[in-house]
Amino acid sequence: MSMIITAKDNDKIKYTKSLLKSKNRNKESKFIIEGYRILTLAIECRAKLDYVFINEDFEKKQEHKEFLEILKKKDIRVYKTTNKIFEDLTDTENTQGIIGVVKFKQRTLEKNLTDDNRFVLILDRIQDPGNMGTIIRTADAAGVDAIIALKGCVDIYNPKVIRSTMGSIFDMNVIHATQEEALRILKLKKFDIVSSYLDTNNYYNTVEYNYKTALVIGNEANGINEELVSKSDVLVKIPIYGKAESLNAAISSAILMYEIKKYLV
Question: What pairs with residue 194 in β-bridges?
Answer without folding.
Answer: 215, 234
